[in-house]
Queue: 2 jobs
Job 1
Amino acid sequence: MKVAVLSFAGRRAVVYAELLRGMPDVELLVADPDGAPDDPARGRSTADRLGATYAEGWEELFALRPDAVVLSTEEGSWRALGERAAEAGAHVLCEYPYAVDETGAEADELDRLVRVCEEAGVRLTVASTACFGPAFAVVRDKISEGEAVGDVKTIHGAYNAPRPSGTRAARSGALGTNAPQLLDLVDAVLGGVPAEQVYAQTNGVAAEPGVASAALVTVRYADGTVASLDCSWGAPDAGPSASGPVMTFIGDRASVDYTASPRLLGGFDALERRARHVTRGDDPQAVMLAQFVAAVGLESGAGPDGAAALRTLRVIRAARESARTGQPVDLAGAQPVLP
Amino acid sequence: MRELETALIGAGLIARMHLEAWIGAGASVRVHSLDGRAAELAAEFGVKAVDSLEEALDGADVVDICSPTETHRDIALAAIAGGVAVVCEKPLAADVAEAEEIVGAAQEAGVPVYPAHDIRFAPAYARLHELVAEGRLGTGTVARFTVAGYHPRAWTGHASAESGGILTDQLLHGVDIAYWLFGDVVRVHALYQGDIAAPAPEGTAAVGTVVLTHAGGALSQVVCRWTPTPQPPIRVTFHVTGTDGTIVHDSDWPQEIQVSGGPAGAFGYYGESPFTSEISEFARALSGGPQPRLVAHDALAAVRITQAAARSAWTGRAVELPVKGAAA
């Protein structure tokens, strides 16, 4: 199977390429025609190091007929390239577009890409890493079976990844960077039930002016489920295990606490001078890529699709409005994603 | 120092725990209750029972009100009128107007009112507040509090769903701690689920999901639950974040003693009972010691916030709270 990494501009592009390179059935294709400002030959040298096939330009890359692409372009140029990949028949994995305001421009862009993928018969998958883990799949499946947990009507969770380094990502604040993972987890468990009302409060105590570093979002869904989510940025050096996500599902028979990075080993690390927190070690990005690749060509797909991402972006847009007005925001009716 | 003369009103579960604590603090106690159980409780602890409120308040230094919430106002006002200090089980009153009346009267008469928010004396919350007060958290940004527990008896009191019902009681814990850490609350949003109106049968389940916006900008999320079954036992957690780090607690974390096998919760050690710490701090204050960690205006703030949450849950709107000057 041919999987292409489209440019090395994205923050996780090299990691993705390295992980794909390690997969037995994957032939890695790479194109990075724009290079980096200080290193125009970045694409070629990275491809050589990874033993990947390098294409000089987009045309040459799509002529190689990739089965799937990972969009890891610069923020802003993802949609056009995504459409091109879809038209070439490749399944697409893309990062969440970061909204920086209430205009919903990124949702409109994503909506266009969703339509193009639909028409081309390829699956659009968003890189909402937390949704791919096998442990989370157990939670989702058990809740959907209903036996053990019963009817789940209340969910609360937290994802406290630190302030990102990218400029646009940082400007999008905690609602832009951390809310998608949590909302996607809820969406996966609820099976796409649309949100009806959103309340959000934010503060910028730990950020530059105009940016929300802390955010609480409460969503009421059409089936009556309530989800309350802490998307605040966490401390930069707290380590991935402290970020979560964590999520509690309260059913009428049992409640389930889900932790994405549980402690397997503890102790003290004298070199780092801090408590040791060693997890089982399943790299969430490797898990995500493996599932994405494994699902290529399958009916079901893995992880949140474009429609799920659009539902999430609608909630985030309403959350921004609510944070500004101080009142809950109603999402009028369950708008169809595709007319 | 002479013994504090304490009038304990009520003879239920909380009254029993307070009575034990007052005796431990060296007080002399007389018990009065309208439910006919005062004599039995008094006899068990070797103190006296009295037949009327007047008799209870006569010569008392302090009244400790552990009777149902709707009786708090009249008892508190009678005590204040007689110059008797007030300790009152939470919530101070069923609504904001009654709480304001009590606090206003107490302020005018110069009589102290100490609300029994026992959670502030539970070790995890006490240590949390110490760390925050020492500045170890930096500027507070966002906090999450959960409490989930089973109520062992049917709910006999009357509380409409509009008033917040059985969730008001459960919510008060998280609200009080959030207010203690981050200060005045200016906006409240709440969603309530379950059968919250009381009377309610034993095993009634309900969940409140509440977001508080503090005047200083910090945010608090409180998720409070009555669980339908006694197992698992009560569980509380918090996750408090500031510019200099986080402070996290989960009551499921093992403490000094863990018993495995045998009946769950066979025995353990959890430090001094919060009721003991609380009543002895109040007793010291009433005997000329330092002001306790919570006073009348804290009780009023808690009632204001929990009632705002009930109103938000009822109307579906966020509720704005004016920040008033401290009333006591």
Job 2
Amino acid sequence: MDDSLSAVFTIEGEMLCVKGHQSTRLIPCTLQEVSAHENSLFLTGKADTRERPDLFRFNLGPVSGGLLESVRMDVYTDGERMAHISPDVLFKNRQPAMKSSEAPAALLKAERINGAYSAAFSTAFCMAAEEIGGIEPPHEVKLARILMTEVERIANHIHVIAKLTEGASQNVAAQHLFALEERTRRIASEHFGHRYFFGVNGIGALERGLDTRSLAPKVEGVAHEFASIWEDLTSSRLFLDRLQTTCRADYEWMVGPAVRAADFRYDSRLSGYLPYSDLSFEVATDDTGDVLSRALVRQKEIEISSILVDEVCHSMKGAARGSSEKVRGRGWAVKRVETPGGDMLMLLGLADSIVTDFDIRSASAANLLAFVQSATSGILTDFTFGWESFGFWISELGGYS
Amino acid sequence: MRNWVLRGVKKGRVTTRFPYGEPESVSPWSTRPVRTGEGDVTCPADAIEDGEVRMDRCISCGRCSGPFSPEGKIDISVIGRVEKRFRKSFTVFVIDTGSCGACNLEVKTLSNPIYDAHRLGINFTSTPRHADALLVVGTLAEGMKEPLMRAYEAMPEPKLVMAAGTCAISGGILGEGVSGLLKADVLIPGCPPTPFTILDALVKAKGGP
Amino acid sequence: MIELLLLLFLLPVAASAFSKKTSYGLSIAASLVTAAAAFWSIMTNGAGESLTAAGSLFGLDTLSWYFLLVGAVSWLLTSLYSVAYDNYSRAVTAAYHMAVLSIVVVILSRSYLPFLIAWEGMSVSGYFLISYKKGTGRLPPYVFLVFGEVSALLILLMFTYFYAATGKPDFTAAAYSQVAVFAGLVGFLVKLGITPFQMTEWLPIAHGGAPVNGSVLFSATMTMASIYSILRILTFVQVATLTGGLLMAIGVFSLLFAAIYAASSEHVKMLPAYSTIENSGAMLILTGASVVSMNSGDSLLANFALAGVMVYVFAHTVSKTGLFLFAGVIERSSGTLDLNRIGGTSSGLFSAGGLLNALSLSGMLPFGGGLGEWMMLETLFVMVTFSSPSISVLSTFTGAMAALGAGITLVAMTKFYGYGGRVRRSAATPARTMTGPILAAGAISLLIGLAGIAVIGSAGGVTEAITGSSPAGLLTGLLVVPQGFLISSPGPAGTFGVVSPLFVAALLLIFLLLSYALFGRKRVRVVPVWNNGVAREQEPVSFAYANALRLTLRHVYPSGRDAADGGPAPSFDIFWEWLIGVSGRFGKASRAFALAFMNSDLSRYMLYLLIAFLAVLVYVIV
């Protein structure tokens, strides 16, 4: 079992860390460990920008067409090979003011850190607040959280695979997939009132009443259509050729679909932060660690998630609407939630419902080094596949004030 | 390869009738909440003034549900300027100045076959050099001020500036909006604005479908 | 007239003992007089030949006049430039004028001995030009001298054989053994710096620290003298088809290799030096092709190929002069020879001068270099249609490799100009007397191309003297193209050709003016470069510019990325590496020998040998 450093948080000036792939325990750590960890996150300023006379350096971004978000990648190349990649992710760092806001208001900010993963982020925030306040949310709320995070996972996995397909110029298939992603967002809007689950989660309750009838068959329909598109897609040699052996990453310290694609059974859902053990949840893995493996893991997870949605819908009686409770008490809590991109750690400190500490170690932060290392020595056209296959979101990188 | 054509034929038309017909699906909490009942509400975004919701501040969180319910109308954008020269061909450059990613996804989704913005002469470009409009999403992060101004400078005249999403318009609850640097001609509210709202604003800004 | 010419070029040598400025002034005057006389002689269709004094030692025919004109243009520009540039010792100036005089004598010689003495004089003055500087290592001047001697020896062998065969001391037509002819030609090729003797070309320029007028001399006019000599041999020696084919093969090999090395060179002077080898290769291909065509009975194509040599040699000599003068300024103002660290220039006019010359050398139409390159490729193209399968195969391969080399040359020249000609406000402004000659060289290169039909027309006398048949039919007309404005390349499968660049340029100009009159000036708005939202901060590196080539051809370049620290070492000439290895061992052995038996300084001994050799030659003539 890998027990490398997975996050470093600062509480009242003291640096504490979380190790391993399941733990949420804060333990003291050495300065060396911390600085190595921070370097790997590319958050301590720009990485290695040495000039070598045989290399051209050019910048992709911060604002370029191929990337959905603003991020700068300095690519060093000697012709076609990428000799070195140096990312600068802090251009769009917003530094949201989390501290000293009330927990229910901070929840709204937390779910807007990464819009694509908002269900997972709000779930982590709520669970942390509940732990500090000693609140036990109703079972139905927990099930609703599973529903949201799994539908969100399906939408995001489809998005990632659509981007890969688009990168491989399989444009017909890509448009089918983008349309399918849109269909999933519409399902979310019909059943949760918002395409990105904003404003649904609450501390100890749900801010909105849910209607989960007819959700399961719709999600199953999406999964079914996805499976059929994927089957046709993988019969294309051209598509597989672009994905196979591209950007191989088999580091144990990665998270999410990336680490599972390298045949490690790491998934924070196994820790049971939500009642996954009552459901037929299984971890999808693949063994090669290349772009195709990561796509295959996502493809399997879409199927698994749709089964989970189906099971939850059958056991759920319809969740009642409540309102976020005031959180009494003072303390800190670290929560791990499996976002679509991978395991995310959130630290929350509350003092009588006022946020005192907030920080996250996102899946993108954990995997960025893996992308840089696996894409290096690949060719320039591999860039898109490497980047999209990890499913990065720049919005979840950066600091908080 | 085998049956993409067949699949397409079987699937039939998925493209929306909008703007010639009504939108097929509206995400309720991305539209304007209006008062439908009694009761006090505290808006976390301070968007409620005199019983009305100001859409430039509303973050579509739904905390006012109960006394308020969503109106369900997508044409909530403020079109400050219409540039009729762009009617037949309207090229938009999207810049993310610090968003959560949701607005980016909503803009991106306009290119898929369901919205198919291309049929209305709306195209997205990857360089401001070819752009007629600058579509800003997200709060104005410090690091993005320079790129934003560079993009604006690089655009040929005439040019429109559009702010999509509450973050870009006013900063919402997360920061400041784009107005500190550029005056937006078109404001597209919502958190995030639904694709139909964005499409509607784009069509109106270029002087009709 | 011959005596006058010799006197004119002797005066600067003498004057350099007293004043550098006076010597350059005299050189300018001599070049002007020579150029005017040559121009008059060529324009009047060989009136200058009547000026030839009786006697067998020297002579003046159209071939000589033509090369004198080409040389005089180069020397004129160089001398004008040197007035402001030359801050070296008077001995160096004297060596420079001595070398020019030697070249003039080579061109005027009609007899073996004066030719050889002048050839040797070229080597010796070259040796002094290189070795004057204190910092210069021992090896470069020696290597230059050794190759000079090898060249002289081979030519001496050929001439000795000629003399033995005919019993006459002057150039006489006879049936000679092809082995001797080929050996002599190799002598000229060594001096040309043809692959694998590339170092004879770049070594003196790159390592000698020779002043820039010396570089011009080595690269432009000494190359020209070698080409002249080969053509001179062709006027009285029957060369076999096989020898012609060999010339083509050697030429294309040099062209390709030199182009590759030029493209990857980071050295301000070595890059143009390699480009010279590339151009020599092209001229050799044309010469070889003319021999092959002549022997195959297509004397009109032979005329065409020779006309190509004439265009090439004129364009190359002039534009290479311009390019080296350009290199001299940027090298001096930035104090480095590393292309990547060259500071550029602040004068747009100066930069434009460099551009014109670089364009001509990269083979762009309507420049002279472009016309020459087209004529070379066209000749090979037509030769493919010859009935002999071996000639077809040879020309196909030669043509393909030459086209590839020509493409790579474009990389080399865009790199040279792109990094050397950057206009920056902070850089130094060159003197006007230095900018002028560079611009003039560029303008003349352009003129050679534009007035290509006139150059081809006036070269008719030369080509006819070699092929023995009339060049009539090379300049024709077709459809809307008026008579004389179509350069045709006749072959067995019909006539191909190109419309004269002058005609094309005139048409373009008319349309340009027409559209300007119709639409007027466009409104322009200048905005900063869009670099994905950030200021442009990357400096494209000249080393990386050619790196794709370096990676693809990593077996041609001995040093690759596996050098220390993962970074690459600059690649180097494999032939040179090999020679260093051999000469290192040889040097050790000979030094041991010298210490054991002569107990004196080796360099003095070498100098003594040279002077002795020259003295013996002079003695034999007298």
